[in-house]
Amino acid sequence: MTEKEILIFEMIDEGFSLNEMANFLRLSARQVHQKIQKLISDGYFITPTYYDDGNIRYNFKENGQKHTLNLSINDSHKFKALVISDIHVGNSLENIGYLYKVYDYARDNDIHIILNCGDLIDGNFTRGEQLIGDVNEQINKVIKCYPYDKYILNFICYGNHDYSAYENGRDIAMALNQRRHDLISGGYGFSLINVLRDQFVLCHPLGDGNYKKIPNKLILEGHHHKSMFRIERNNYRLSIPPLSDLCFGDVDSPGMVEMRLSFCSGFIHMGYFKLIDLKHSLKVYNEMSIEFFLKHKNLDEKNLVLK
Fold it and tell me: In this predicted model, what pLDDT tens digit does every residue of 54-83 receive, in sequence order?
């Protein structure tokens, strides 16, 4: 173990954040992240916890979960994030400029968490025309062109187009994890986000037979390329508009959702959702407040995954 790796061990034990370790070691956060990933690959148990101020801290324990992320919030009564989906890098209708608008909005509104509901890349099949057909080039463009801010974290639930690359031997989740500490994998198909005593879900259908139906949750869902809200099977399901010009249905513009949750005794109680048009000067085209009536029983991913 090198001298810097020993220092990283000591700082993790003392509760340093990733950014604090980077400042102390005079390295970038990305460089420290890569050293931590090397320690993990060498067999050390190191598990991250994510914070809604954009920080990451670690502890020494085994983490066998691929679909579950733990989020710690500074205010026990409220949490805010931006929700995006369906970027489709490689498609002729991609628009990375929309991502930069998302980041500008996050900085202007003191938001440090972006929830990404999948299809970062167009993958091995497309609706329309691909400008970048090679999956490796699509992934490399995400790594290079996805914006970066040291105090903004992205939680990503990968979708069916991302999964098409996985089925053909290219794991975008692993590729991003090796290079970008701020692009955090919550698994393929669904992600369980643990916050305080409760949980909400990111979702992006992969096809039939990948996981069981998720009951009684707030579900933020990609894939449909249009915004809509519905209650079904005791779920509160919000479909997220695309962050590309691949718009279907009654939505003719790309967009994002600003989400603010309020908590009572550690459980999700109310939600405020603002749908924002990113093509026409951040126009707000819908707002809604929802009072949730949930059972608050937290799910275990191992009971949901079928294969």
Answer: 999 999 988 888 999 999 999 999 999 999
Domains of the chain with bracketed CATH: 3-44 (1.10.10), 68-303 (3.60.21.10)
Distance CA(21)–CA(208), nearest Å, equals 43
Contact 25, 17 (CB under 8 A): no
Q: What is the DSSP letter of 167?
A: H
As a whole number of Å, the CA-based R_g of the chain is: 19
Supply 291's token pair: 């009072």
Residue type, 219: I
- Specify the DSSP class assigned to residue 303: G
Q: How many whole angstroms separate alpha carbon 301 and alpha carbon 304?
A: 5
Report yes or no: 261 and 243 within 8 Å, Cβ to Cβ.
Answer: no
pLDDT at 205: 93
pTM for the predicted model, two decimal places: 0.95
